[in-house]
């Protein structure tokens, strides 16, 4: 049953990165769009993500619940020593959701719409940034559980080049996913070209931050190169992701919407396999050389069995409803929304 739970945890993180990533990426694209074109990006983003944006966070909630119930020591360590970036990320999620609701559904359209817009775009940037920071910190061996200093225990473990490089890479990846998704949401060729250009810029930025990430890992003594190229599985997935990127751009140029979305999902899946396989089942690497493992630091067996059964039964209800939600809103014609 433990492997069922680990599978649910990994898939939840993957889907949140894909769906939530494209969701956050819409705000990131709006942030880096010229003022004259912001309203068009805003309207397109609303029509694409408006109906289902809140459902994306379900996957993050599932991952948190799995860690809390199934791996309490992992949950405790991360929530204590990385509580600062965690709080910032959660505040970003709350601020973004609030601003999204008010800027699209507020009965009164006044100057507060500008405030909502700014909160929305900046929180869309901050949230994936600190999500990446948390992920990078968990495997960077910076978490010092033996420290007696506030800074070394609660700041230096995440405030470093490697963690922020992972964060900025995550931001550009989200922007890239959003641009790819939004290409298929517009009909006229001018708009398609605009989102293709955004995809190019985000792709370039993503590659630049990937290089910076490797440099930061070397500077901080983190064996990222060995993780990605030191075993056959990670190596094959990295090669597959690189090849998929080529076919992705072919599909974008040919305006093959379904294919390019599938390839984008495949590419992200390969990247996530590559970065998690090398140190599996270890999920948190500590400064003192210890690791927190999904196999060795799990809850009692009765808890694991109950959690696994609950996840399996819950998926029978949640997944069909979610797929129907996506299907139904994909079929309906979008109404006209008010935007400033």
Model description:
- The protein has 340 residues and is mostly helical.
- It has one domain.
- It is built from 13 helices and two strands; from the N terminus they run ααααααααααααββα.
- The chain has a two-stranded antiparallel ribbon with strand order 1-2.
- A hairpin with a 5-residue loop joins strand 1 and strand 2.
- The longest helix is centred in the middle third of the chain and has 31 residues.
- The termini are far apart.
- 37% of the residues are buried.
- The C terminus is likely disordered.
Supply the key terms.
mainly alpha, two-stranded antiparallel ribbon, Cytochrome d ubiquinol oxidase subunit II, 13 helices, Cyt-d_oxidase_su2, disordered C terminus, about 350 residues, oxidoreductase activity, acting on diphenols and related substances as donors, oxygen as acceptor
Strand-helix topology:
Layout lengths: L1 H30 L6 H12 L7 H14 L1 H10 L1 H23 L6 H27 L11 H5 L6 H23 L5 H31 L4 H6 L2 H22 L3 H21 L4 E4 L5 E3 L7 H31 L9
Antiparallel strand pairs: 1-2
Helix pairs in contact: 1-2, 1-3, 1-6, 1-8, 1-13, 3-4, 5-6, 6-8, 8-9, 8-12, 11-12
Task: Please provide a brief summary of the model.
This protein is mainly α and 340 residues long. The protein has helices spanning 2-31, 38-49, 57-70, 72-81, 83-105, 112-138, 150-154, 161-183, 189-219, 224-229, 232-253, 257-277, 301-331; strands at residues 282-285, 291-293. β1 (282-285) and β2 form a beta hairpin.
